[in-house]
Design a protein that fits this description.
Blueprint (H helix, E strand, L loop, with lengths): L1 H20 L8 H8 L3 E6 L1 H4 L2 H10 L2 E4 L5 H4 L9 H12 L3 E8 L6 H4 L5 H18 L6 E6 L12 H6 L2 H13 L4 E6 L7 H15 L6 E4 L2 E4 L6 H12 L4 E12 L6 H19 L3 E6 L9 H4 L3 E2 L12 H12 L5
Parallel strand pairs: 1-2, 1-9, 2-3, 3-4, 4-5, 5-6, 6-8, 7-8, 8-9
Antiparallel strand pairs: 8-10
Bound molecules: ligand 9MR.
Length: 351
């Protein structure tokens, strides 16, 4: 019995190695490779306007198994007046995902940016602001109960020096707003996986230390927090951690019972980019993150923030930088795209 298990295991290993030695099938998409290997998801951020352009819609549907609304579920879009809601764009994202068998990551319920003036300019008592927060979260999460699998509940709550970020939420409610947001989201959809999402936490340091403390204390109180999102907006030449460092960082959270996910990856180049080294360095950076995710059992997927340079937010916020996506502005795949395909193909079921 034991012997046949061993022989069976060897046969599987040989089959996997043989498969891995073959070149990546030329027409295998990112999502088909991710599905084939171990069910980890590969995602992108989207805007509903993209679904109306057939080349973009085809690419999003065929290459990605998860979508994140880039902007349309943020307060300023979805909740433009105290009792006014604009659900149509978010509904369009969820409908597209359902049509194409994709997971949706909801983004984002509590943030310091892209908030409407009625909220930022309002004057609320603590109890009133808590009521506003509860109404927002229960309406939005409740609307998509069972249809949005993961939510970025709290986004970028930690300042670069590791202190809690000074926001309307911290000022108006106190540090408890984090716990309350998770509890409101859980009440609205008990099955949704609830994430805290941040940037510059992939290399450890002050922000990651504070995050670990927040996660540990929330879990000790029984608060329904399930995952940590790593944004990974990288610049090249990059301070990207090695895959081993990044994976170790993720494991510090995974070992406390958390899921992890790379939620917003892009790798900006300084312009004009070097046509030889730029795309290779960029492929290395995307590759490091994908390898780290593949090495950690609890990593549920990798989402790129914008799939093409035509859509990228980078030039608008960081003049002089760009070309950050895995497809160029004409939707031609770059070396980073091919690197991710290879890594998914080579991945030997690390789970
Ligand atoms: O990609 C988003 C861009 O279109 C918006 O103008 C910008 C405004 O704040 O937000 C961008 O998305 C952010 C995401 O929601 C949270 N992490 C950082 C992302 C890039 O700024």
């Amino acid at each position: 019995m034991r012997r046949s298990v061993r022989v069976g295991g060897l046969a599987v290993l040989v089959a996997v190695l043989v498969a891995a030695c073959r070149p990546v099938p030329p027409d295998a998409t990112l999502r088909s490779l991710a599905d084939l290997r171990d069910g980890r998801l590969i995602g992108t951020s989207v805007e509903p306007a993209q679904f109306g352009r057939s080349a973009d819609a085809t690419l999003i549907a065929s290459q990605f198994s998860s979508v994140t609304p880039e902007n349309v579920m943020k307060w300023e879009v979805v909740h433009p007046g105290p009792s006014t809601w604009n659900h149509a764009p978010g509904d369009a994202v969820v409908a597209f995902a359902e049509e194409h068998g994709q997971r949706v990551r909801g983004h984002t319920l509590v943030w310091h940016r892209q908030n409407p003036a009625w909220l930022t300019g309002g004057s609320y008592s603590r109890d009133e602001l808590i009521a506003v927060l509860e109404d927002h979260i229960s309406t939005l999460v409740g609307r998509y109960e069972g249809r949005v699998a993961q939510w970025d509940v709290v986004n970028e709550a930690i300042a670069d020096d590791g202190t809690l970020r000074d926001t309307i939420w911290l000022r108006g409610i106190g540090p408890d707003y984090i716990r309350l947001a998770f509890e409101f989201a859980h009440a609205a959809d008990p099955d949704a996986e609830l994430f805290i999402n941040d940037y510059l936490i992939e290399r450890g340091g002050a922000k990651a230390a504070t995050l670990l403390w927040i996660v540990a204390s929330l879990r000790a109180q029984g608060v329904p927090i399930h995952g940590v999102g790593y944004q990974v907006h990288a610049l090249v030449p990059s301070l990207m951690p090695t895959p081993e460092q990044f994976a170790d960082e993720m494991r510090r959270f995974a070992s406390r019972g958390m899921l992890v996910e790379i939620t917003e990856m892009d790798v900006a180049l300084q312009l004009p980019s070097d046509p030889t080294t730029g795309p290779q360095q960029q492929a290395d950076a995307y590759g490091s993150a994908v390898m780290a995710c593949l090495a950690v059992r609890e990593c549920t997927g990798v989402t790129t923030w914008n799939y093409s340079d035509a859509e990228s937010w980078i030039p608008g916020e960081f003049p002089g930088f760009g070309e950050a996506s895995i497809y160029d502005a004409e939707l031609r795949p770059k070396p980073a795209y091919e690197r991710i395909r290879q890594l998914l193909w080579w991945n030997l079921r690390a789970r």
